[in-house]
């Protein structure tokens, strides 16, 4: 057990994350169910997740905003240009390991040097990203220099670009059938479906949130394992990008990060140049139980009341509280694995 003693005004800096989900508010600790709170990285790696299944070759000239993210010249993720110096992709494509990454433009191939190759210098992850639950699976890459390719258009915040039944195109590098990998840009046209319909597939039952978007009907066409971050576009409007899938490629819809739900975060990172977008939450990813002692500050005695402390403790789930009437010290503990 780890004990932290702090003033009430900085209690919010302990490893607590507020996650908006549907109409409720979830309070979670930065335990092993999250991927840690690192939001900015200068050394980056990527994680493979999804490929295009049942697709056909695409022409890069028709989709100049698509980039392959590479390590040692080999594609590990896809990303989408949304500003001259910024790419958007999935959060799980961004890590803090010291590995050089580049972005390739104007190339239909997943390797080689026939396109424009630009070094990636920073990566950003949404502060509420939860890897295990795929929540807020969005990140951005900052390029070393601006590029001249035409960016994709960001969607309207009201979701009008992603209506159920709209046919969208998903792009990426990878499989055209089970266990068959290719190395040229692939595309497949699939309809956007409702979360209610998507939820009927066993792989997705009770796992979908309003920050996610489903596309595909399980009729042989979908995203699949191997190349995360591939854009889902409607007339060059970026409505989503590949986040995760079930185990049966082509037989289940793909799940995408819904771009309209994370527009504020994307715009904030781009507008600020990435400054001050790191998390203020300490990394306690291996802490199973955390005990916090909060002591009132004489300078800010009203920053957090005893009632507020109890409310936070109650929201945390498994907890113990200790308070002596009249004292300004409160202790609560919660099980970080809950």
From TrEMBL:
GO cellular component terms, semicolon-separated: extracellular region
CDD domains cross-referenced by the UniProt entry: Tryp_SPc
GO MF, one example: serine-type endopeptidase activity
Domain of life: Eukaryota
Signal peptide segment: 1-22
A GO biological-process term: proteolysis
Subcellular location: Secreted
UniProt entry keywords in alphabetical sequence: Disulfide bond, Glycoprotein, Secreted, Signal, Virulence
Residue intervals of the Peptidase S1 domain: 52-271
PANTHER family cross-referenced by the UniProt entry: FI18310P1-RELATED, POLYSERASE-RELATED
Similarity comment text for this entry: Belongs to the peptidase S1 family.
Protein name: Peptidase S1 domain-containing protein
Taxonomic source organism: Hyaloperonospora brassicae (Brassica downy mildew)
């Amino acid at each position: 057990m780890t004990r932290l003693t702090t003033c009430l005004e900085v209690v919010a800096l302990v490893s607590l994350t507020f996650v908006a989900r549907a109409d409720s508010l979830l309070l979670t600790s930065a335990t092993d169910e999250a991927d840690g709170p690192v939001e900015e990285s200068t050394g980056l790696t990527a994680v493979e997740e999804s490929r295009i299944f049942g697709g056909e070759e695409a022409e890069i000239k028709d989709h100049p905003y698509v980039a392959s993210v590479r390590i040692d010249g080999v594609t590990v993720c896809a990303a989408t240009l949304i500003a001259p110096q910024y790419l958007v992709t999935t959060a799980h494509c961004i890590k803090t390991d010291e590995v050089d990454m580049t972005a390739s433009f104007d190339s239909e191939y997943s390797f080689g040097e026939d396109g424009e190759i630009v070094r990636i210098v920073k990566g950003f992850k949404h502060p509420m990203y939860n890897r295990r639950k795929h929540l807020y699976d969005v990140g951005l890459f900052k390029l070393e220099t601006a590029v001249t390719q035409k960016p994709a258009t960001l969607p309207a915040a009201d979701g009008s670009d992603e209506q159920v039944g709209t046919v969208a195109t998903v792009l990426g590098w990878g499989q055209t059938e089970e266990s068959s990998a290719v190395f040229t840009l692939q595309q497949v046209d699939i309809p956007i479906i409702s979360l209610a319909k998507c939820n009927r597939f066993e792989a997705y039952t009770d796992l979908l949130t309003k920050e996610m978007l489903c596309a595909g009907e399980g009729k042989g066409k979908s995203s699949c394992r191997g190349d995360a971050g591939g854009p889902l576009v409607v007339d060059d409007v970026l409505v989503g990008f590949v986040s995760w899938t079930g185990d049966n490629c082509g037989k289940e819809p793909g799940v995408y990060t819904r771009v309209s739900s994370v527009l504020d975060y994307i715009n904030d990172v781009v507008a600020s140049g990435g400054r001050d977008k790191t998390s203020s939450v300490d990394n306690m990813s291996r802490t199973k139980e955390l005990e916090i002692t909060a002591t009132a500050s004489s300078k800010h005695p009203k920053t957090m009341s005893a009632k507020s402390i109890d409310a936070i403790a109650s929201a945390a789930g498994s907890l113990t509280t200790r308070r002596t009437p009249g004292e300004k010290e409160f202790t609560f503990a919660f099980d970080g694995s809950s």
